[in-house]
Amino acid sequence: MHGPVAPDAHYEHPRLVSVYDALDPDRSDLQPYLALAAELGARRVLDLGCGTGVLALLLAERGLDVTGLDPAAGSLSVAAAKPGADRVRWVHGDARVLGRLQPPVVVDLVTMTGNAAQAVTDDDGWAALLRAAHDALVPGGHLVLETRVPEARGWEAWTRAATERVRRLPGVGDVRTWTQVDDVSGPPSSPTVVFTQHFAFAADGAVLTSRSVLRFRSREQVGAAVAAAGLDVVEVRDAPDRPGLELVVLAQRSRA
Ligand SMILES: C[S@@+](CC[C@H](N)C(=O)[O-])C[C@H]1O[C@@H](n2cnc3c(N)ncnc32)[C@H](O)[C@@H]1O
Fold first, then answer.
1. CA 153 / ligand 1 centre spacing (Å)
2. Of 4, 24, 94, 180, which one is least surrounded by beta carbons within 10 A?
3. Domain range holding 174?
4. Per-residue pLDDT tens over the stretch 87-102
5. For 136-168, how does the pLDDT look when each residue is reduced to its tens digit (9 = 90+)?
């Protein structure tokens, strides 16, 4: 990751970001992160890869001081237009911008939900992100991230037959979506999966596509990268809404 991150179309294209939340309305996956923030007594949170800001806004609603960072300006503009958005500090860019921000971002908890960690596919970018997360944390502060378990081979279900669905969205009409995998490469413990999502709008017949690349990482690889960034893995949890499919990694900056 040397140049700026080029966001996937479904995080950036105005027509796709405008339906992003409506196409994925069940965000019960975020509940454990709200519970974790409360469990840890976090007061200041950095949501890395905040997308359309759903978690950032839920945390801010609870009175926490929240920064949401994302390289996709289109998603951030959706986030910033939501009720309560003025309570959140929105930052455009990838984690490398954190070192240049004034005032600096200093938090007790860094979150990476929605498998945002997998969007960082190269080892250097991944190491830089984890280091930036470490540097934003106070001593004793926590990082929590989720990433799909490679052994579960989730991408095998990303076929048109298994993923196709139609949603009727108010003011938009029917939107038919489906996913297809284009390529799987790399070792079984850490494959890189390239796939394309299709969005067909019945209102005008437009079909937009968004190509994504995701890196899967084993528990050992995530643990080693987190440790190399100076964080201790405290616990690896399951995601209650996706049992057996996710590694939810909780790490801590040392108190010293
Ligand atoms: C599946 S979305 C999840 C968004 C949000 N965390 C949520 O749970 O709703 C993945 C997000 O990761 C962001 N992303 C991609 N590359 C990134 C990077 N290098 N650093 C931080 N975020 C990144 C994308 O722009 C996108 O908003």
1. 21
2. 4
3. 2-15+151-215
4. 999 999 999 999 999 9
5. 999 999 999 999 999 999 999 999 999 999 999
